[in-house]
Known about the structure:
Structural class: mainly beta
Shape: globular
Oligomer: single chain
Amino acid sequence: MSSRKIGALFVSVILLLFTTSVIAATPPKPGSSCTKVGTTQSYQGMKYTCIKNGKKLLWDKGVVEKKASPAVTPLPIPSKDSTLRTYSVQMEKAYLPQAPSNGWDDYRCFLLDPKMDQDSIIRSIQFIPERKEYVHHAIIFRVTAIDLPEAVDKSKSGTGWSCFGGSGLGGMFNTFVSSPWISSWAPGRGKDVLPEGYGIPFKKGEQFVLQVHYNLLASKDGKIPADQSQIIMETVPAEGSSIQPLDIDLLPAPVELACPSGITGPLCDRATALRELAARTNNSSVIELFGIGAVCGQNPLQAKPSLVSTCDKIINKPYNVIAAAAHMHLLGKTMKITLNPGTSREQTLLNVTDYDFDNQVPVYLPKPAKVSSGDVIRVECTYDPTLRQKLPIFKNQPPRYISWGEGSSDEMCLGVLSVTKTP
């Protein structure tokens, strides 16, 4: 992508902003080589350590890792409801992931119809990946009436369509952040049972798009088996219900990580890295990166690298925060989400001090946090880019400048809030 094209994309993003107001880390194989004694890597409840065996550095067999539970008030167990109904929907056909453009990430979208026969409130939702070890994350997007014909056309093959960014519907400005979310899944997540008194509205006959990010870096030979994942939802009728509807509010921040000191390579140049990002995914990844930077007060064409990513969001409409979750990739260290930072009304909504990609479970607040129009919510993430030279999953990857991106080897700083709107 030339500088002229990048500039044109940036201008397009700014115009859009003014007109509109979850890596599955591959565990080290015991006995395989590692690079530094004492280096550890956590994966799916196991902790692996690099040890010295004779003259070689090897990964040990791993030990079960105990994680402290978040210090929050336990959620009440939803009461049994005779009106509770279960809907299950699976991908129409098994899909064999294939990364485009010589990359290692496959974003695939599938139109799914749960055949809901009445207006309902979702009380629980569960994404069940058939190939869990290869799924980086999944997002369930709403499909608007205007976009449904396009979705139906794209899904005729039964195996979905490529969708780097958002749902891939509605034109080039459809992105990961701008597409309307219903729910999401990331490592560590299971069945999401919503707190008593809350739920997600879903209309009769409504369909949704399931976006699955397959991570081919998690495979030894770059190939993974076919996948036919499913979603199970438990609902109650919307009519006569006093359940408060939940929405998702996203808090992205730009990521700009230079190659560590002493590490060099062609992709350590930001402009070169962005061109490679666009070639490996598509132009929407760069559009999204520019848009986030602009919203957060950066000039995306002259961004400065930093180990800290931050962004302040001014809230336009009031809501109550029920839960918060963090999403970064493998270089992430900490995330903090703060309401009205630096004021007498400052309140911490989320404070993750030791981020673990394999444990992205949302944290429910002890009581809802009231957010008013004009309030500010800040998201702040920190990173350790030297991990790129240490983690086995990056063994065959060249050093590079790391930016916000959809790929498994890119990074994100994304706070995810579950909120209920207030008058």
